[in-house]
Amino acid sequence: MQGRIEPPSKKPEPSSKEKLKSAEKIPSYHTVAVGSGPVGLLSALSALQHRKPGEKVAVLADRREELGVRQQVLWIQEDVFQFIKKMVGEDLINRFMDELAITEDEEDGYYLTTGDFERLLYIALSEYTQGEDYDFIDVQKIAPKQKITDAIQINKEQQVISVQGLAINGVPIEGAPKTCSLNFKNLVAADGARRTLAKAMGEEDVIFDETQRPLHHTKHVVATFRLPEGTTPQSCSKLKVYPGATGAETVSMPTLEDIPFSRDITPCSLAQLKTDFGWKGHTRPHSQIYATRDVVYIGAEMPADLPKEKAREYAIRMMHDQLPQDFIDKMTEIPCDLNTAYGRKMEQLKVSVFDIELGELNKTLQVCANEDEDQLGVIFYMGDAKKNPLYTTGTGVQTGVREVMGFDTYLDSVSTPKLDSDKRTDKQRLRDALESYHVHTQELLGDIRTKQDGWIEGRVKKEKEAEKNFKVFTRYKKSIAELNSLILKVNEAFAKLPNDEIPEIPEFFDQAHTKLNDLKNKYKKVFLCCKGEAHISSYNGVNVEDMIKEFKVIEEEILTTYPSLESVTESLSGTPKEFAATWYNDISEASKQFLLDCYHGVSKSSATTSAVKVGLFSGSQLSEQGPKLNHEPKIDGLTM
After folding, report:
1. I need a surface site. Which of 184, 420, 460, 534 has the fewest CB within 10 A?
2. What is the CA radius of gyration of the chain?
3. Tell me: the pLDDT tens digits for 488-503?
């Protein structure tokens, strides 16, 4: 048996001298990694590569039976990928890439599931001899209401951690759970955002960054599905349309020869998101989609009050922001064997709902020493145990791996033989190496904070912009609908214009036709709103005030150019005159008012002022709520 096993005792706490004596019987480890996720396993592999002959590494896990079960897709950048390759070996990496368990994207980096990442690291760990090179110790999970210090004790002075052991290297401990104590040089706290290790020492002091902006939407959902049969992760990436800066729009992209799917992206409207799911924003929920192996994953903001039972339906609906309908229709469920605990856990994790709490422990490491300081030990906080970052920035697992990179550099420094020219003591070398690790970690986390703050600032700004645009649109939407009707009538009339029309009339209509259609094309999203809220996907980019200002300029330009068409109309006869009368009689009230100024004697001397007397948007509206022209209109125009 590799650890000292003893039944829980209710005896008084032993004295320091008694602890010192008992510590001699406790097995020692170069590194004890608490946690069997990617960060814990990776730090164990690093320690195995740096230990001295005869030294061992231990991994403490409370969910070994769940290794590989998580199908959420992770994004890995090049530097992180190269470090992982260094830890596990190129042959194993190539094997996983051949299986598409690691998917390479030429532009973005690499993708793999959390489960495949754990499987990769566990296979690499298994290449060492269990029981000789390392011990894998299964420990009891902490019950919801259990006091943490009843399950985990840490004696920093003696560099000893005690846990409730269940099995060592797969061999059940008789009478388990029993207290298992381990001596450590390095203790890696990779136990996630629960921070049980920090809490066991009474050292937890979660602080939030002073510059941290609050998240607008804290509730998120992640969901996984099986790719359509016959497709690859790369084909999913090619089909995917990244939502633009103003939110997802209905788009039709050219089809791809090697992929049998359309590329028609049809996001649902905000009205649907509000009615069906209770979304309260005027901008779209943020979402991101990744694919690897045979898995497609989505992570998205979700309505705060949406029950978990509807989370899967909501996740699928949000996939329409980036993927075509026929692709989504052919996705299937990831198969799970519900007769096994592993399969039931996989089924449970297909859809996960969680609240984001952006916390950070105020320590990167702690130095432990006995009373005589003849041996130093170190506790390292890594991954979510140190900082649980905003996953939408792609900094989650990558931050943890980069912290292990710093740990690997630290182990390099302290394990490299000292040069003759180096006059530092071993203890000073260790402290210098720790200082370098601390600086590395702080710089890393500083970059993460900056990126995270920037993402949150942009998200909040986008939400505020959408809210403002929604209010302005609501104020003017009837007028916008009238303008839309006017443009349709102009287009109809222009299409019917006889080819032999006299020059003056075609020039007038051509200018009105061209300028109004240019306006509609430029602000097509504003006019899309006119069909009703059921057609708008986001109020980002609905620049109503700018559109109104440009329309007023168009009115002024046309009416200034054509202050009076009385002499022209008097000279008309036949088809042109009939056309003008028919066009005038058929168009909307707004258009009639527009033409009244043109046809009925607006004099050149009054052109500048009369040009803005008549319009869809009243001067009082613009002066109170929106942009102003250089001169104040004297008369309100058509008020909707």
Report:
1. 420
2. 34
3. 877 876 776 666 554 4
